[in-house]
Amino acid sequence: MRQPLRWPWLDFDVDKVDAPAIAVRVDVTETRAEVPDHWHRKGQLVFALGGGVTCRVPSGLWMVPPHCGVWIPSGMEHSNIATANARIFFVYIEPGAADLPERCCTLSISPLLRELIVELSDFGQGDARGELLTRVLLTELPRMPVQQLHLPISSEPRLRKIAEALAQDPADRSTLAEWANRVALSESSLARLVAKETGLSFGRWRQQLHLIVAIRELAAGASVQQVSGDLGYGSVTAFITMFKKALGKSPAKYLGSIAQNGGSEFVA
């Protein structure tokens, strides 16, 4: 069950705040929470200190594991879904205040930047010290490495239908032929459509979704056994093999390296 993710203050409009950057902390309860589709003039960095967040934009799904952030440019429609017990920070940045990408992307978050975000969210930007911290944040953020763990989603209605169905039930192991039948295409036509719209084969596209879900759930505290079952793998070994082949490390070592290195191990 999902509940609305509520702001720390009622009637809070980030676009009315006259500051180059502001940081807001949101602690999620035991239930998953969601911010529905919306947009704002300021760009937004979604950063998870604990748990995980999935951002949906028109072109794809973006995963926010601990110690990484997703940058959402100004004016881009998006929604955010947080795992239970997540500790989330939203950093809103005025257009032009920092040299940041014009596309949605995942950024590594260094320990220094992490502490700057936490400090600004706790104490605000209303004095000389806050202004100094903000300047350092806006200097450091563009230096963060861009990472690429996301699921491309096409606006093509048949692919969006498949993506939404798999997001709802990632354990669905229907074959390419079965999916083709559901969307009234031949198997070869669907294979070509997926490749054209996403740049991936159908199998690789579905695997990317599994990686997104797996990292999100593992970061939220789920066990490898639980995630393996939720994704429809016949055994824990099969799941670990897939994960290690895709990301080069077992789930435990991969998440450990993210926590230790501030996200620098995050790869496509």
Low-confidence parts lasting 5 or more residues at pLDDT below 50?
1-10, 262-268
Termini separation comes to 30 Å
Percent range for β-strand residues: 15-25%
Give the helices and strands as they follow along the chain: EEEEEEEEEEHHEEHHHHHHH
Tell me the radius of gyration: 19 Å
The 3D shape can be described as: globular
The H-level CATH homologous superfamily of the largest domain, spelled out, is Regulatory protein AraC
- Structural class comes to alpha+beta
Please tell me the overall pLDDT.
84
Q: Please count the helical segments.
A: 9
Specify the helix fraction band.
25-40%
Number of domains: 2
CATH class assignment of the largest domain: Mainly Beta
What is the annotated CATH architecture of the largest domain? Sandwich
The main pleated sheet reads as:
6 strands, mixed
Number of strands: 12
- Can you list the strand order of the major beta sheet? 1-3-8-5-6-12
* CATH topology title of the largest domain: Jelly Rolls
Keywords: DNA-binding, Transcription, Transcription regulation
InterPro entries: AraC-bd, Homeodomain-like_sf, HTH_AraC, RmlC-like_jellyroll, RmlC_Cupin_sf
Pfam family, one: HTH_18
Protein name: Helix-turn-helix transcriptional regulator
